[in-house]
Amino acid sequence: MQEEEISEIIKNIINEKLTQNRNYILGATKKYQILTKRLEKLILQAMKYIIASITNSDFEIVGNEVEFRNQKDYPPIMIDLDDGKKVEITGKIDRIDLAKGKDGNYIRIIDYKSSLKNIDLNEVVAGLQIQLLTYLDAVTEKQEDLIPAGVLYFNVIDPIIKADKNKTDEEIEGEIKKQFKMQGLILADVNVVRMMDKTLEKGASDLIPAYLDQNQNISEARSSMVTKEEFKTLQSHINKVIKEIAKEIYSGEIEIKPYYNQKKKKTPCDYCEYKSICNFDPNCNSYYYIPNKEKQQILEEIKNR
Ligand code: SF4
To answer: Which residue, of 141, 149, 197, 203, has the greatest Cβ tally within 10 A?
Structure first.
């Protein structure tokens, strides 16, 4: 499809949505109409890179907005607690992709985000970023021939490029491309990397967080990857985290203990609407600190837990 054709389709979908519901705020005033135009531009831009990431890979979309719920695409995720109680997790994932490999079918989970997001294993261990790995686990455990290939965020953003006047159009396009590159974790397997980016010969991939060195090996330092075993370690750790959270919910534990991410220097209290109600005071209450550890240290620690 040519860009003009894609643009036409996007415009039609947006118009259709706006006329479907007359109370839709995006059609209400001139200001919102301009915002709609910007949104249209943003979607078109993102769509260009989403299409490139699909056409340049062996992965194919097997489901969009896949729901884990009774009578939907997958049943709810059931987790058995030690005391016989059960936890049922329902939810939706943006996209599931599949590629047929020599030793099985590879599965990757994609989540669209409206802001720059990446996977931080420190947050995964703390129970904050467990959504994608939980769904990956749920999908792969049902069918033995499915191999986890990755959990990735596609950031649907309006990229702003810092550029001097001397930059060529190609260079600017290259900078934009970098911002649309998917972020997250991929399987440390050069064949899978090539299946995700068929154009990659060496160096950094434009599509996924992978880097191939001169000898066509994946560079550990410049890629965001985990081995099959490490994927398993992470998935079993997340299972434990969910059980712990469920136990706390069942026991009525509601201690005021917001997280504090030491690397990002970030806490949810900064933008929380309930500040005046909960009365959290860093001088009296304590934070749940999320450390800034390296990947190998994290994986080693959770393996031995
Ligand atoms: S302000 Fe209170 S309710 Fe909000 S995140 Fe912080 S501790 Fe939680």
So the answer is: 149
Same domain, 71 and 163: yes
Dig out the tokens for 90 from the structure: 């329902």
Torsion sign, CA atoms 189, 66, 117, 257:
negative
Do 64 and 163 share a domain, yes or no? yes
More confident of the two residues 175 and 217: 217
Assign 151 to helix, strand or coil: strand
**Interacting residues of 249 by C-beta distance below 8 A, sequence separation 6+:** none
Buried b / exposed e over 119-149, threshold 16 CB at 10 Å, is bbbbbbbbbbbbbbbbbbbbbbeeeeebbbb
Q: How many CB atoms lie within 10 A of CB 175?
A: 15
Ligand 1: does its nearest atom lie under 6 Å from the Cβ of 278? yes
User: Can you give the residue range of the structural domain that contains 233?
Assistant: 59-252
In a domain, 143, yes or no: yes
Q: What is the pTM of this model?
A: 0.89
pLDDT band per the 50, 70, 90 thresholds, residue 25: low
What's the pLDDT band for 29 if we cut at 50, 70, 90?
confident
**Is the Cβ atom of 41 under 6 angstroms away from ligand 1?**
no
> 201 lies in a domain?
yes
Residues in the chain: 305
* Nearest-angstrom CA–CA distance, 194 and 183: 16
How many other β-carbons are positioned within 10 Å of the β-carbon of residue 189? 18
**Which tens digit of pLDDT belongs to each residue from 175-208?**
888 889 999 999 999 999 999 999 999 999 999 9
Q: At which residue do the structure tokens 């769904």 appear?
A: 135
Place of tokens 């340049």: 56
Q: Does 26 have pLDDT greater than 70? A: no
Question: Which residue, by CA, sits nearest to atom 6 of ligand 1?
Answer: 269
Task: Classify 88 as helix, strand or coil.
Answer: strand
Ligand 1 in reach of 32 Cβ (< 6 A): no
pLDDT digits (tens, 9 = 90+) for 109-139: 999 998 888 999 999 999 999 999 999 999 9
